[in-house]
Design goal:
Number of domains: 2
Number of helices: 6
CATH architecture of the largest domain: Orthogonal Bundle
Strand content: under 5%
Shape: flat
CATH topology of the largest domain: Arc Repressor Mutant, subunit A
Number of strands: 2
């Protein structure tokens, strides 16, 4: 991956982490408000204002980097031919990602995590299953290597099946009660 892409990814990950922190802050603010703890509400609102200003500065940095990175030459990234569909059986099947994703989310506090944290753990859990076809870019136009792209498609399928939430914060994957039931049943039958 080119250095400019690494910086862009790092900034995007940073923004996702800020989004996660904002979600936690909003949850605390909501609880304090419900409990009529107005001193905490004021304190949390002040922190929220500071976090918003910080977030806006990071977005400005992201824009600045986008302009600057256009001057950096891109290195060639190993890719597979995109003129033909990959032969069946060469990559790890999409459904192989289902149980690891659900397990990771079920183990997290609140049943949710940033997609980057989930994918990092998926890579650890599946390192012996991922092959060379999984570890190259899915296509010349894709920003993801194949296994990450496949995991995203499985996440999309699970959202449509109600196993993952379809209204969680952007960048956050969240297991539903239906997802927990499905996982428990799948683990019993393993």
């Amino acid at each position: 991956m080119a250095e400019s892409d690494n910086v862009k990814t790092a900034i995007e990950l940073f923004i996702l982490e800020i989004d996660s922190a904002v979600k936690s802050l909003n949850d605390e603010l909501s609880k304090a408000s419900q409990n009529r703890d107005y001193d905490s509400v004021k304190d949390l609102a002040d922190k929220g204002s500071k976090m918003k200003a910080f977030y806006e500065r990071v977005l400005v940095l992201k824009e600045e980097w986008s302009m600057l990175s256009s001057y950096i030459p891109k290195e060639k990234i190993k890719s597979t031919k995109t003129t033909k569909k990959l032969k069946k059986g060469l990559k790890t099947p999409q459904n192989a990602f289902r149980i690891p994703i659900l397990q990771i989310l079920a183990e997290t506090k609140g049943g949710s995590a940033s997609y980057n944290d989930v994918l990092e753990r998926v890579e650890e859990l599946m390192k012996n299953k991922l092959n060379d076809y999984d570890k190259v870019k899915a296509s010349d136009k894709s920003q993801y290597i194949r296994w990450i792209n496949t995991a995203h498609w499985e996440r999309y399928k699970m959202v449509n099946e109600g196993l993952l939430s379809n209204n969680s914060t952007k960048g956050i994957w969240e297991i539903t009660e239906e997802g927990r039931r499905w996982l428990n049943e799948a683990m019993k039958n393993k």
